[in-house]
Amino acid sequence: MPDGTVDAEREGEDEQRTEADGEAAAETGILSSLESSPFTVRSAEDLSEEELAEYREIFNLVDRDGGGSISNSELGDLMDTLGINASQEEIDLMINEIDQDSNGEIDFEEFVAVMSRRVKAAYTPDQVRNAFSFFAGDATPGLIKPECLERVLLDYCSDRVNKDQVQELLRQLETDSNGLFNYTEYISMMMS
């Protein structure tokens, strides 16, 4: 075979492998965090001050009116942002499941009880880290540009989220001074 033919075949194989690797990486990592998973429970006493502060920050983002609790309307907004199409009945069921004092809203202590559960995923932290790394491009290891994450979510999750939902999700990411998202910290928080 002429050398040009072999090179063309290798390039074709590389493109196929890259696309297949991308789909596999997306399925095993980034997408898994959008899907429901079984949980293991950690008690609030096991949480560090840093974790509690992070949960407070998340809680405050969801508690848009600053009332000190998450209403079913605010939970509905969160579900929309995450690309989860939940009916009002499903949102009410979620509230009822979490709401220990039966006041119809989720207070911070109830929120912490739910958030302190850890994802017991079918994927290891290394697999999820590799999935993020695959899409991170030339970013520093452990970091990803929000625009890369946006592209992945739109390319591989378009059946679950639309562009507005992805942009809302990206607006809520904490980025460093260079505008990069630390996916290593995110994976540690979700899967440790």
Automatic annotation (TrEMBL):
Gene3D superfamilies xrefs: EF-hand
Keyword ATP-binding: no
Region (Disordered): 1-43
UniProt xrefs under InterPro entries: CALM/Myosin/TropC-like, EF-hand-dom_pair, EF_Hand_1_Ca_BS, EF_hand_dom
Protein family according to the UniProt entry: Belongs to the centrin family.
Composition-biased stretches (Polar residues): 30-40
Pfam families the record matches: EF-hand_7 (PF13499)
Protein name in UniProt: Calmodulin
Natural source organism: Hondaea fermentalgiana
Keyword list, A-Z: Calcium, Repeat
GO cellular component: myosin II complex
All residue ranges annotated as the EF-hand domain in the record: 50-85, 86-121
GO molecular function annotations of the record: calcium ion binding
Lineage of origin: Eukaryota, Sar, Stramenopiles, Bigyra, Labyrinthulomycetes
